Amino acid sequence: MNVPRHAPTSPSVRVGLREDAVVAPGDGALIITNPFGAVTVRGLPARVASLLRELPGTIAGQDELIGRLVASGGTSQEVALLLLTLDRLNPILVHTVDPLLRIVPIARDAVLRPAVLDPGDTVRLSRFALVRRSGEGLVLESPLSRHRVTLNEEAMPLLGALSRDVMVKEAPEALSHLVAAGLAYAGDADEEEPALRTWDFHDLLFHSRSRSGRHDEPFGATFRFLEELPPEPALKPLPAGPAVELFRPSLEEAAAADPPFTTVLESRRSVREHAGAPPTARRLGELLYRAARVREVSGPTPSVPYEVSSRPYPGGGAVHELELYLVVNRCAGLERGVYYYDPSGHRLITLPARTEDAHAMLALASAATGGLLQPDVLITITARFQRMSWKYSGMAYAAMLKNVGVLYQTLYLVATAMGMAPCGLGGGDADLAARTFGLDWARESSVGEFLIGGAAPGTAGS
Ligand SMILES: Cc1cc2nc3c(=O)[nH]c(=O)nc-3n(C[C@H](O)[C@H](O)[C@H](O)COP(=O)(O)O)c2cc1C
User: Fold this and answer.
1) Distance between terminal CA atoms of the chain?
2) Cβ(423) to ligand 1 under 6 A?
3) 371: CA distance to ligand 1 center in Å?
4) Domain check: are 140 and 80 in the same one?
5) Is 222 part of any domain?
6) Is the pLDDT at 307 greater than 70, yes or no?
């Protein structure tokens, strides 16, 4: 029998199973159900099985567990089986390093084998690690780690020191566990392997948490606020301000006049030239109608407990959290200014924005094209965040950005079919947008920018 070799454990290191693991007999075996699946262990003597059944939610040193088994009459072979089974359960084992840390596995493939470090080695915190308040305590996490570490107050001096190199001998157990959990690096290890070097801290964290697999947080359509908060309505309450009715095209006439679909798709380009004739209010109205109006609002229903809407572009959950705001620089038949697009009434609501803010929005958009143009019309896409986060856990913001991409392509295709000049932009100032449009940044602010020029070069309108 191959008994796993263990680095000698100090009495300060203790283990237990995740509190939500359930150990139960079944089909002549011991079945350990946990958030990531179930482990079936066969052939365990009764004494070992009953010891394991006490493990969820309790923490004990390895020597203590062995002592308990021996005290109840366990043989050396049973001790070996206990150690083998604990090794197999490593992916759901909680480790504590008293009095500093508690390390909880949070993903299916979590394995914690304390690194063997020399007392003279040095360790430092990963640049991807973060500390935040969670529940009652402080937790240390990283997108590179499949474990979450709860920090006791006694760990604060060590944590503070870890922004620089700390000698292993200062806290051997805690440091070898932090290294094993991927939250810290031994001095000679290269954290910046090529695949990681180019990741921003926040991007990697967002990637790890906005998809399932590397965390144990609720994920997907959980409706976690169903009993706490009413969902926001499908249609944003209209801001006060003079309304400008927009042209409503005949979709039959548009369909007859449009180039074939493949021609539109293949001729679509990002056009960074707004030098010709500006768009007209009529064509702007047609673009918005064909790309972004509300066709219908429905619900709520028992199975979909919030209002949904149908629009020309798809949207996750038919939530349609995106809103459009226009900064109009040049448009025949429409005053320069800042407008909210009412997608249901298909009109623009004039907003009392400051001229310098509108200019700053246009200047930023121009800069995003490399200063290639003075935009005719800047469409800013905002998200009413709570529409999505009321329904979705973990993935709400990621889904909103996907929805932005979908709307970009719809604007691109309709503008191309109409011979207008479209160009999506990759960055904008959400603070400036919130100020310009009079929004609360945390409730609704910008997630996308799109430029529309009067006519693409070489088209009938140019
Ligand atoms: C999400 C997204 C962001 C973009 N950001 C910018 C940008 O900030 N500035 C710019 O000039 N073009 C931007 N573009 C346009 C791309 O540069 C363009 O799509 C790409 O060069 C391919 O050219 P094409 O659109 O003509 O096929 C963006 C496009 C997308 C879809």
Assistant:
1) 82
2) yes
3) 14
4) no
5) no
6) yes
Residue 8 forms part of a structural domain: no
Does one domain contain both 276 and 408?
yes
| Residue 460 falls inside a structural domain | no
Please report the atom of ligand 1 found closest to the CA of residue 271. 26
Atom of ligand 1 nearest to the CA of 408: 31
Confidence (pLDDT) at 274: 80
Buried b (16+ CB within 10 A) or exposed e, 290-318: bbbbbeeeeeeeeeeebbbbebbbebbbb
Question: From CA 268, how far away is CA 412, in angstroms rounded?
Answer: 7
- Beta partners for 13? 97
CA distance linking residue 113 with residue 207, whole number of Å: 25
Asked if residue 148 and residue 37 are part of one domain, the reply reads no
Whether residues 307 and 406 share a domain: the answer is yes
Angle between helices 76-88 and 46-53 (to 10 degrees): 40
CA of 366 to the centre of ligand 1 (A): 13
3-class SS at 20?
Answer: coil
Decide if pLDDT at 1 tops 70.
no
Select from 214, 232, 261 the last residue of a domain: 214
Check whether 4 has a pLDDT greater than 50.
Answer: no
pTM of the predicted model as reported, rounded to 2 decimal places: 0.94
Q: Which of 90, 120, 141 is the last residue of a domain?
A: 90
pLDDT tens column, 200-248: 999 999 999 999 999 999 999 999 999 999 999 999 999 999 999 999 9
Res. 460: pLDDT tops 60? no
Is the Cβ atom of 381 under 6 angstroms away from ligand 1? no
Q: How far is the CA of 387 from the centre of ligand 1 (A)?
A: 28
Kindly state the tokens that stand for 378: 């800047």
Q: Residue 61: give the domain boundaries.
A: 13-90
Q: Are residues 171 and 274 in the same domain?
A: no
Nearest to 32 by CA among 46, 50, 52: 52
Evaluate: CB of 369 within 6 angstroms of ligand 1.
yes
* Ligand 1, atom 11: closest residue by C-alpha: 369
Residues 329 and 430 in one domain: yes
Residue 450, ligand 1, Cβ within 6 A: no
Does one domain contain both 131 and 164?
yes
